[in-house]
Amino acid sequence: AYRTDEGQPWVLPVVKKVEQLIANDNSLNHEYLPILGLPEFRANASRIALGDDSPAIKENRMGSVQSLGGTGALRIGAEFLRRWYNGNNNTATPVYVSAPSWENHNSVFMDAGFKDIRTYHYWDAAKRGLDLQGLLNDMENAPESSIFILHACAHNPTGTDPTPEQWKQIAAVMKRRSLFPFFDSAYQGFASGSLDKDAWAVRYFVSEGFELFCAQSFSKNFGLYNERVGNLTVVGKDADNVQRVLSQMEKIVRTTWSNPPSQGARIVATTLSSPQLFEEWKGNVKTMADRVLLMRSELRSRLEALGTPGTWNHITEQIGMFSFTGLNPKQVEYMVKEKHIYLMASGRINMCGLTTKNLDYVAKSIHEAVTKIQ
Amino acid sequence: SSWWSHVEMGPPDPILGVTEAFKRDTNSKKMNLGVGAYRDDNGKPYVLNCVRKAEAMIASKKMDKEYLPIGGLADFTRASAELALGENSEVIKSGRFVTVQGISGTGSLRIGANFLQRFFKASRDVYLPKPSWGNHTPIFRDAGMQLQAYRYYDPKTCSLDFSGAMDDISKIPEKSIILLHACAHNPTGVDPRQEQWKELAATVKKRNLLVYFDMAYQGFASGDINRDAWAVRHFIEQGINIVLSQSFAKNMGLYGERAGAFTVICKDAEEAKRVESQLKILIRPMYSNPPVNGARIASMILNTPDLRKEWLVEVKGMADRIISMRNQLVSNLKKEGSSHNWQHITDQIGMFCFTGLKPEQVERLMKEFSVYMTKDGRISVAGVSSGNVGYLAHAIHQVTK
């Protein structure tokens, strides 16, 4: 989760304002939302991902399912795919998850019933960057109709995203091999500070005519973690197909949670549908993104100033909340035990944990770990 | 071409269809008796005062929005368990239970269904009362279980077919799962009397069945939270380690906030810890962790003495209004000169009432009187008010005389 420079959780000012508006609105009650969610939320949430001028919106061939966070959106999408994709109830369709990825991706698709979950090459530890060739090879060799889970931006946990040119190559292979793109978009706006930039890959795939799913989370970019605000955007060939897909997703939702929680969706819908509040929100998002970007550049410059062995440009080239530092397990153990700096055994750090007060200490500690431990 | 060409259109929701038709009707006297949510005597949704107070208190605390634990808000789950089991329950004292927060009743049922699918190896069969809430069947089916039924409602008397139920239940294969509605049976409103619950418990125990209680109306049924939980507590006292799903949608009016809980009663506290760990493993790939708002409101109410007192009064108020409407409907039917026995309307309890009306009569009510209900003759008493109960009685009498 995001932390301020004081190391504290941050409720976005625009969220506080909107919550007050909601609290003061006596016309509101606690009645059930429709099964697919709050209509104003669904439309606005998908519009944020796809862009105002999206051909999918213009041609009325997109649909949305309000979900319990990004996880819930992934799960509804996975349950639908298992029932209706590549045949009926075809649990053998391969599902590809990046190596590494968020651990819960595997569990979501497994519990949805898929039997064949594989990895695709992604992180190149040696060069500390994207293993594009490995990724493309895996796609070339994947059985047709395989499902690929793609991180829309700010890849979790590596922070390493394909460039636009690389995305184009990925899309070309996926189109030729009839592979299904399932985007996980948990950091739109939070990664670069720009909503449009962070949605570039999803929008490119739509413009290339793909049918796709995009699981969106508003946990990070709205700071609404515990309200469980998410949205599954469905893009199809035409309105009729999308309508039938949504009718079946509604059945899945009905037996999972019946209808989604109201509070978080109201906050997001109110914010996105008011031009003034929307601008305010974008400002809040940029505040968070800028702080993380600042911490990245400050950490890198300190390590370079210290002369810490190795190259440290990946710290600023990576994007989003996480960074794969390149520290090995022994070095990580040193950090944890000797310096009381907690990071994952993979060398992943949460950039939100950095503050102006602890930057020096963290940089010095990394320097020690790298020079003392091989 | 599309990946989805072969995807069938999902069947239209029957209850939704009723509401759609109601909305289209221009008759000023129209009544929507399909609604599954409480309405006040003006036909309006009712936000409880204790809920408003709790919301104000929560807002003033200026809490952050950090993720809840996977199992939910601890203050909420503990208070939910105490509400269901009673604070002095030996189960609560010994800690031999686990309660996790669920997405209202549906989410809690689903967690339980998935848990049983994964860990209850003795049987795949879940026995539901005939009839049961329409969503029970697809929930258990999607979780990978098989559905069976036991006799429950007697359409000839519009009441409990007790001998039929006992007969069927005594023949259920050992170690099957039986689902029981704790109170205010949905859709019939027909509940066993305490004496009958005692016999059911004895039979269920003899057959060594796993008991799954669905309690969506505690407090809302009789107006008394302890009375409505009597069956649940009796079974536990008889040594039956039940699993339980609770909803706060109706009794706190928290419908869209999705506050619910799933409880497993275990052999001991150590077993409860192991069960809890597995429940979390099931929840994480579903939605990671639950929504905070409804749970915080419910927790604030249950754990703040003044608010809790106020809540008990308000939930009794809702139950009393429903009971009053039942009474008025019957007395109005008598006044209309109806010679039928309408006693079941006041014998039944909770939000719903199985009127005994036949599909043709339901059709006439819709077409001639703009009174809307589901084809099975079920009405939501919550949709009846002192302003329209006379009209309803008149309409029912016209189609049944």
TrEMBL record, chain A:
Its main location: cytoplasm. Keywords: Amino-acid biosynthesis, Aminotransferase, Cytoplasm, Pyridoxal phosphate, Transferase. One of its GO terms (molecular function) is L-cysteine transaminase activity. One of its GO terms (cellular component) is cytosol. It catalyses: L-aspartate + 2-oxoglutarate = oxaloacetate + L-glutamate; (2S)-2-aminobutanoate + 2-oxoglutarate = 2-oxobutanoate + L-glutamate; 3-sulfino-L-alanine + 2-oxoglutarate = 3-sulfinopyruvate + L-glutamate; L-cysteine + 2-oxoglutarate = 2-oxo-3-sulfanylpropanoate + L-glutamate. It is an enzyme of class 2 (transferase). Homodimer. This is Aspartate aminotransferase. It comes from Scytalopus superciliaris.
From TrEMBL, chain B:
The keyword DNA damage does not apply. Pfam families: Aminotran_1_2 (PF00155). Transmembrane segments: none annotated. It is an enzyme of class 2 (transferase). It catalyses: L-aspartate + 2-oxoglutarate = oxaloacetate + L-glutamate. One of its GO terms (cellular component) is mitochondrial matrix. GO terms for molecular function: L-aspartate:2-oxoglutarate aminotransferase activity; pyridoxal phosphate binding. Its cofactor is pyridoxal 5'-phosphate. Keywords: Aminotransferase, Mitochondrion, Pyridoxal phosphate, Transferase. It comes from the Eukaryota. Its EC number is 2.6.1.1. SUPFAM superfamilies: PLP-dependent transferases (SSF53383). CDD domains: AAT_like (cd00609). Residues 29-396 form the Aminotransferase class I/classII large domain. GO terms for biological process: L-aspartate catabolic process. It is found in: Mitochondrion matrix. InterPro entries: Aminotransferase_I/II_large (IPR004839), Asp_trans (IPR000796), NHTrfase_class1_PyrdxlP-BS (IPR004838), PyrdxlP-dep_Trfase (IPR015424), PyrdxlP-dep_Trfase_major (IPR015421), PyrdxlP-dep_Trfase_small (IPR015422). Its main location: mitochondrion. PROSITE patterns: AA_TRANSFER_CLASS_1. Homodimer. In eukaryotes there are cytoplasmic, mitochondrial and chloroplastic isozymes. Belongs to the class-I pyridoxal-phosphate-dependent aminotransferase family. This is Aspartate aminotransferase. It comes from Scytalopus superciliaris.
